[in-house]
Amino acid sequence: MADAIVRLAAVSVSYRAGSGGLISAIRDISLIVRSGEITGLLGESGSGKSTLGAVLAETLPPSARMTAGSVEWRCSRAAAIPQSPSAIFSPYLRCGAHLRDILRARGVAGARVKTEMQRCLAAAGLPQERRADRAWPHELSGGELQRMAVARALAMQPALLIADEAAAALDTIHASALIARIARLRSELGLSVLWITHDPRELLGFADRVLTMHGGRIGEEASASEFARGETGPITRRLIAAIPQGPVAEAGP
Question: For strand 38-42 and strand 209-214, is the pairing parallel, antiparallel, or unpaired?
Fold first, then answer.
């Protein structure tokens, strides 16, 4: 079994309400993320899956606080790929400038900055001839900007990629391409991936295991083979039944 890169033990998170009270978002979550593993985190809106992702990405908003539990890292930290990449790119900076700032903050200097930037862009599916680093964020298509978000995440040199509904705003072709790209990055770089989604179709042939959240808790877990055969619990089956029939964004080679 692969080594654990992060362990969550009995983690609970609440948000401050307007009345001054607390609203529970996730409760008593215990989770191990293993090296090189793709974990699918499935759940309907409001189930707590994005809050769990924010705990791992260390991006909880000021209105939230961890009220119980612990997070133990055994490696470098995580990098996030959001649903809306425009939120992480300043319209006043060319795309390449975002990557250069991250690389320099990591201590990369001199000619290595350009070399590392091109490596990240190529790994994300934006080869040098596309000159995407010279583009302003608004000049890229939705699929290209999402790949730029992947390059930005890779520039952080993370052990764990957290993708929160990263394919939700893409059409089927671009969603399939993104999922296949992430699967290749896992194989080539040994990354761990937490793929957060409401759509079970995204996880077929992609996730090594599927965790299903409901009511702020992880209610069910299935292996890749169990998930593919439909051998899941009632919460997961209900989510699968709610999805309209149509093309499945499976990971390709």
Answer: parallel
126, 117 Cβ separation under 8 angstroms: no
CA distance 107 to 104: 5
As a whole number of angstroms, the distance between CA 241 and CA 244 comes to: 8
Residue type, 60: L
Single pTM value for the model: 0.90
pLDDT digits (tens, 9 = 90+) for 148-180: 999 999 999 999 999 999 998 888 898 999 999
Q: In whole angstroms, how far apart are CA 210 and each of 16, 96, 249?
A: 30, 35, 16
Q: 3-state SS string over 88-125?
A: HCCCCCCHHHHHHHHHHHCCCCCHHHHHHHHHHHHHCC
Q: In the structure encoding, which two tokens stand for residue 177, read together?
A: 């391409």
H or E, element range at 51? helix 49-57
Q: In this predicted model, what pLDDT tens digit does every residue of 142-154 receive, in sequence order?
A: 889 999 999 999 9
Q: Which residues pair with 214 in a beta bridge?
A: 217
Cα→Cα distances 248→14, 179, 199, 202, 212, Å = 35, 11, 10, 7, 19
Task: Please answer whether residues 22 and 14 qualify as being in contact, where contact means their C-beta atoms are separated by less than 8 angstroms.
Answer: yes
Give me the amino acid identity at 163.
A
Is-contact 50 196, C-beta < 8 A? yes
Name the DSSP letter for residue 3.
P
Pairwise CA distance, residues 124 & 6, whole Å: 25
Specify the residue for token string 């996880």.
203
Beta-carbon contacts of 163 under 8 Å, excluding residues fewer than 6 positions away, are 80, 81, 182, 193, 194, 195, 196
